[in-house]
Amino acid sequence: MNLDENSSGIRPSWEQHYRAARRTVGFYPVPGRALTAMAGADRKSFLHGMVVSDVNQAPDNSWTLSACLTPKGKMLSDLALYHLPDRIWIETETGLREVVETTLRRYALRAAIELEDLSKDWSILDITGPEAGRVLGKLTEPGHVVRVMLEDRATVLARTDLPRQPSLRWLVPATLEPAASDQLLAGGATRLGPEAATALRMEAGIPVFGTDVSNDNLILEVPVYRPGVSFEKGCYIGQETVARLHSRGEKIARNLRGILSDVAPEPGSAILAAGRQVGSVTSTTWSPVAGRYLSLAMVHRSAMEHGAIVELQGADRTTPGTVSELPLQDG
Q1: Of 171, 188, 205, which one is at a domain's C-terminal end?
Q2: pTM of the entire structure?
Q3: Best label site of 21, 29, 206, 218, fewest CB within 10 Å?
Q4: What is the per-residue pLDDT across 287-308, written as a single tens digit (0 to 9) for each?
Q5: In what order do the strands lie in the sheet with 75-83?
């Protein structure tokens, strides 16, 4: 889709599918994510000292957000953890899987752990909307994980919840992805294309690591990552920086924000406030909730208040914009 189509009032063709996901339920394959299984007797205690979440207190059959940090407290990778009875599955961006695995092996020393790359053998589907649980007959509590049988194979279903609506993440053997899709369609779910999926993700304030967030960012600069941070647990890599910021009221220099505009900004457009650059556009989509274009950007604290007026300056044009907290709110 040409983003400029909307400047003349034309709605994108995918918005009908997006609306179905907001009113009932939709699903889509999740690209660019990888899975690593960690097994071994020391898996919980070892991983507890490596990530920001409280692994020791996570019960079996639960799902949590998490992250790996550098010793200086910068982001190494965002993570999602599936705490299964006999192992922990670690979800990362595909391009960061090897970095995460290498880091874990480097610190493992004599810890009894084993790592296995599951990425080629498993697919990930997101199911989202008010009726997300109905299509599988499983509406678990937020953070719960259940096993679901599909053609005599065990699959993993986690309730992850986008910030604005119930959501499930379904991990299925790659060979059974077509069967999983058929089951969802038969249950009344709408299959979403990448444009609708991107709009849902960005409206929920979920960035893509490597595009919207990088190794230069602190975890507390990304609101959607914050629920994964335990401020009570003991030592982990990068904890000193996180604890210091938290004790000082989390007064950080920048934060991930949405920028709303009537015209799609050019990729990489500078964000100006009072003539001073306060950030750069990292990604843009049409937002059906706002009825405007939504861009993600790390915005300096001087201009990150909700409703702040900014300018998006590209090579060929300058576009007015409005800063919005994430996730976007209906209406």
Answers
A1: 188
A2: 0.94
A3: 29
A4: 999 999 999 999 999 999 999 9
A5: 62-69, 75-83, 88-93, 33-39, 114-117
